[in-house]
Specification:
Strands 2-1-3-4 form a 4-stranded mixed beta sheet, covered by helices on one side. The chain has 139 residues and is of the alpha+beta class. The protein has one domain. It has helices at residues 23-35, 49-52, 59-64, 83-90, 95-98, 106-119, 121-132; strands spanning 14-18, 41-45, 67-69, 77-79. It is built from 7 helices and 4 strands, in the order E-H-E-H-H-E-E-H-H-H-H.
């Protein structure tokens, strides 16, 4: 998979902040970019300190989970599994899936799964890279 250049963060778009060194994260961001036909989402790796500084989210929080930051005046911030339905609402053809998070028990389950994957991300990333045929990173 070829690396796509980052789209600039603009004030009128929501910004997805992710781990740019995580193979699984990069693959999922690639999907989001393909699905974002209306260009409603700016995508920035948290390693781009100059770009993320303006959001005011602490670096340890960004390293722990993806964040979806909405523009001001609301300036709402969603992290981890809580960002998923908000992200889906921004994507044409995927908005229906956000409603699944309203089903009793889905959001707590999504939070638990997200937390477990995030904790084990380095191991998951190695396996993801092997399955996709991309080079594996050695830590």
């Amino acid at each position: 998979m070829t690396e796509l250049p980052p789209l600039p963060a603009r004030a009128e778009r929501a910004t997805l902040i992710y781990d740019g060194e995580c193979g699984m994260c990069r693959s999922l961001v690639h999907l989001v970019r393909r699905w974002d036909r209306e260009h409603r989402i700016a995508i920035v790796p948290f390693q781009d300190e100059a770009a993320i500084r303006r959001f005011g989210v602490p670096l340890p929080a960004l390293a722990a989970a993806m964040h979806l930051v909405f523009p001001r005046p609301e300036g709402r911030v969603f992290a981890g599994a809580d960002a998923i339905p908000e992200l889906l609402r921004l994507l044409p053809g995927k908005r229906w899936a956000a409603g699944l998070f309203a089903i009793p028990g889905v959001r707590p389950l999504a939070r638990r799964v997200y937390r477990e994957v995030a904790i084990r991300r380095r191991c998951v990333v190695r396996e993801w890279g092997a399955a996709s045929g991309s080079p594996q990173r050695r830590d």
